[in-house]
């Protein structure tokens, strides 16, 4: 871990629930925070009132992404970049989906984010002793096949692999990705709005989760994100962590040194047959 040096943290999708809470969390620590939003909601207004600089960015439109990238070039060089956008829509079986909406979801959840990253990478600060950090967010589906959310799941799986690829390509920067678990945020409204006809059993599971004590406390996610941006590159770089299931608040270096494939996307039992 590094000392609590003050850094410039840029949050793409600062208007999201997790992005908003991260901004407040890191601002309280004394870091400088900037961000982008697609919708200027009450979260954004509260952050602006606290002195955070923001700009609009719609990942569906390359021109909007490029404009936000130009805005970012006028800000201080970033030490931490968080890519927090995510949308479950369209919800439903792939064969029944509107393919244009499905493709747009891939853009919002994957392509647009990496277009933004491409614009942002030359603007990172390489002068600090701790390498700049890029933090992505993963979703479900790494160890199962959740139905009715194919565009979202495949985008998040692709992001996990891109995290590892970028780790191999850019040794001066830390790329890491976090699965936050089931947090009570507005992303789940899509499942409720879609209803059981489109969402299937996920509709009823979401209702039950919202009624129960099962959702992960947002504070746990914030603490995990803080650990990730402060951890050593050789520990977290190119790896996918779970805020819920992994012992991230202990030293993982022994496990990672004994198994370089730990916390990475791999085939199962692929070495069984030689």
Fold and architecture overview:
The protein has a single domain (8-187, 216-258), classed as NAD(P)-binding Rossmann-like Domain (Rossmann fold, 3-Layer(aba) Sandwich), CATH 3.40.50.720. The protein has ten helices and seven strands. The termini are far apart. The longest helix has 22 residues, at 99-120. The protein has helices at residues 17-28, 42-49, 62-72, 99-120, 150-169, 189-199, 201-211, 218-230, 233-236, 253-258, and strands at residues 8-12, 32-37, 53-56, 80-83, 133-137, 174-179, 239-242. The protein has a seven-stranded parallel sheet with strand order 3-2-1-4-5-6-7, with helices on both faces. By secondary structure, the protein is α/β, with parallel strands linked by helices. Helix 1 crosses helix 8 (218-230) and helix 6 (189-199) runs antiparallel to helix 7 (201-211). Strand 4, helix 4 and strand 5 form a beta-alpha-beta unit.
The H-and-E topology, N to C, reads as EHEHEHEHEHEHHHHEH
Please provide the count of β strands. 7
Global outline: globular
Classify the secondary structure makeup into a structural class: alpha/beta
CATH superfamily: NAD(P)-binding Rossmann-like Domain
State the CATH topology.
Rossmann fold
């Amino acid at each position: 871990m590094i000392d609590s040096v003050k850094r410039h943290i840029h949050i793409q999708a600062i208007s999201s629930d997790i992005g908003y809470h991260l901004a407040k969390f890191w601002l309280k620590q004394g870091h400088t925070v900037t961000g982008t939003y697609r919708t200027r909601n009450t979260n954004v207004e509260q952050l602006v009132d606290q002195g955070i600089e923001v700009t609009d960015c719609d990942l569906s439109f390359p021109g909007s992404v490029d404009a936000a990238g130009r805005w970012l070039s006028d800000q201080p060089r970033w030490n931490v970049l968080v890519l927090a956008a995510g949308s479950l829509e369209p919800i439903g079986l792939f064969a029944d989906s509107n393919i244009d909406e499905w493709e747009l979801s891939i853009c919002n959840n994957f392509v647009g984010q990496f277009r933004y990253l491409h614009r942002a990478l030359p603007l990172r600060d390489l002068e600090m002793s701790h390498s700049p950090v890029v933090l992505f967010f993963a979703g479900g589906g790494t160890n199962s096949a959740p139905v009715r959310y194919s565009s979202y799941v495949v985008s998040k799986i692709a992001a996990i692999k891109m995290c590892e690829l970028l780790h191999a390509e850019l040794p001066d920067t830390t790329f890491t990705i976090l699965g936050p678990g089931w947090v009570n945020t507005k992303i789940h409204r899509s499942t409720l709005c879609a209803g059981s006809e489109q969402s299937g059993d996920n509709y009823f599971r979401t209702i039950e989760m919202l009624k129960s004590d099962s959702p992960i406390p947002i504070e746990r996610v914030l603490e995990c994100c803080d650990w990730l941006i402060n951890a050593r590159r050789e520990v977290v770089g190119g790896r996918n962590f779970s805020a819920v299931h992994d012992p991230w608040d202990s030293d993982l270096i022994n496990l990672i040194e004994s198994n370089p494939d730990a916390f990475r996307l791999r085939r199962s039992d692929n070495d069984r047959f030689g």
